From TrEMBL:
It comes from Fulvimonas soli. Residues 123-133 have a biased composition (Basic and acidic residues). Pfam families: Phenol_MetA_deg (PF13557). Residues 87-136 are annotated as: Disordered. This is Outer membrane putative beta-barrel porin/alpha-amylase. Residues 43-77 form a coiled coil. Keywords: Coiled coil, Signal.
Length: 452
């Protein structure tokens, strides 16, 4: 009986449990509460932000890959110029994937560095110029982006001029009776010039040029002493400080899409060199006498190094950039002030005070400079200078006397080459070829500007 009661209790409990489960299965489930509208809006907002971030991330990764390719291309090009030397600023740049995974700060830094590299490879925009074009521009025009430039220049010029002199008359329209003399003047001139350029403002640059000249001149005359077959040659040398020039460049208009960069230049030249007036012409070996038994001719006893008068100049130059080239042109006027001297003739036995007026000169030029790369450029130009005939007036004379043969037309074709040796130093070479008898046969110039 005791064992039957527990068994009956267990059976009743199981029966009750099974009945409750069956009733629960037959009853319908209790519906869940409807979602809140605010929660749905939050979910949609977060999903939208997630999609936006994913799209932005993918775009940034693509841009980083493009910039990385540009950096690698620039690094390879610069390494080739530097002879294969590594570039520390680019060698440690992380790949774009690593930059993107490292966080916003690293991505921003990588993007900034790559953008700088990309800016170095893209073509210059308006107002920007290559370093090689800037070096050429400083020689032909004016450059306002450099604060201070010190330039050392050496110039060599060769001058050879022949003149045929006839002293007699023509008989029967075919026979010349008289003396025929051939005069030839050959001159070697070397000039060292120290130039300083200082940018006062972004629109004003001041310049000073201090030259030192050394000259050797040979005078050759045929028919000396009345003998047509006789040749005589005399020569002398001289050196000294030349005429110091001061000038100022002012930018009138900056270059834009329609107009060129325009600069106005005003200059003043001081007569610090040895003037050519009053220099005695003597026969060598005659102690200052103008005649000699051997028939030798007279030559100047010293060489001038300057004009002897004050000069003022006013010019305008224009430059238009057409990358990778620039086109430039200039036009100017030089006025020489009349000046009095204690002696204006060439006779060592007399002294004639008087006044000298060199008159005015006009010049113009045009050319083009082409950039081969960031360091090297080539320029081709033509320049011409017209000088009016000089005149003299002796003290007490009623009027001026024009100097025969003193007017000149000096045309030159110039070819220049610039090479940036370092960040601060440039080598400038220029060859000038004379196109008229009044210009030097040729001139060769070397300049080394140092940029501070």
């Amino acid at each position: 009986m005791r064992k039957t009661l527990p068994a009956i209790a267990v059976a009743c409990a199981l029966t009750a449990s099974l009945g409750a489960r069956a009733q629960a299965a037959q009853d319908p489930p209790t519906p869940a509460p409807p979602p809140d509208a605010a929660d749905q809006a939050d979910v949609q907002k977060l999903a939208s932000e997630l999609q936006t971030l994913k799209a932005s991330y993918a775009q940034e990764v693509r841009r980083l890959r493009e910039l990385d390719m540009q950096v690698q291309a620039l690094q390879a090009r610069l390494a080739g110029k530097a002879g294969g030397a590594p570039l520390p600023a680019m060698a440690g740049a992380p790949p774009p994937e690593a930059a993107a995974a490292s966080g916003a700060t690293t991505v921003a830094a990588a993007s900034e560095g790559a953008a700088q590299a990309s800016a170095a490879t893209r073509p210059p925009e308006d107002g920007e110029q290559r370093r090689s074009l800037q070096d050429a521009l400083q020689q032909e025009h004016a450059l306002f982006s450099r604060k201070l430039t010190i330039e050392n220049g050496i110039n060599y010029a060769w001058y050879d001029r022949r003149q045929l002199t006839l002293n007699g008359f023509l008989a029967l329209d075919a026979i010349f009776l008289g003396n025929i003399a051939l005069q030839d003047v050959k001159s070697h001139t070397g000039t060292y010039t120290l130039t300083a350029r200082y940018g006062v403002t972004p629109r004003l640059v001041l310049n000073v040029d201090v030259p030192y000249l050394a000259r050797h001149t040979s005078y050759i005359q045929g028919g000396a002493g009345g003998a047509a077959a006789t040749l005589q040659e005399e020569s002398n040398s001289g050196s000294g400080l030349g005429d110091i020039a001061l000038s100022a460049n002012y930018k009138l208009f900056a270059e834009n899409g329609r107009r060129p960069d325009t600069v106005l230049t005003f200059g003043l030249t001081a007569p610090t060199g040895r003037e050519p007036y009053g220099i005695d012409w003597v026969v060598p070996g005659t102690n200052g006498q103008t005649s000699a038994d051997d028939g030798r001719f007279a030559v100047p006893d010293k060489q001038p190094t300057g004009n002897g008068v004050w000069q003022a100049s006013l010019g305008v130059s224009a430059v238009k950039t057409m990358d990778p080239a620039i086109i430039f042109a200039n036009l100017g006027y030089i006025h020489s002030f009349a000046h009095s001297f204690g002696d204006i003739d060439t006779d060592p036995q007399t002294r004639t005070p008087g006044r000298v007026d060199l008159r005015d000169s006009y010049y113009f030029g045009a050319g083009v400079a082409l950039a081969f790369n960031e360091r090297t450029s080539l320029s081709l130009s033509f320049s011409d200078k017209f000088s009016q005939k000089a005149q003299l007036r002796a003290q007490g004379a009623p009027g001026w006397t024009r100097v025969i043969g003193s007017d000149a037309n000096a045309a030159t074709f110039n070819m220049g080459f610039t090479y940036a040796m370092s960040q601060h130093t440039t080598l400038v070479t220029m060859l000038g070829i004379g196109l008229t008898p009044d210009a030097a046969n040729y001139s060769l110039t070397f300049k080394i500007p140092y940029i501070f």
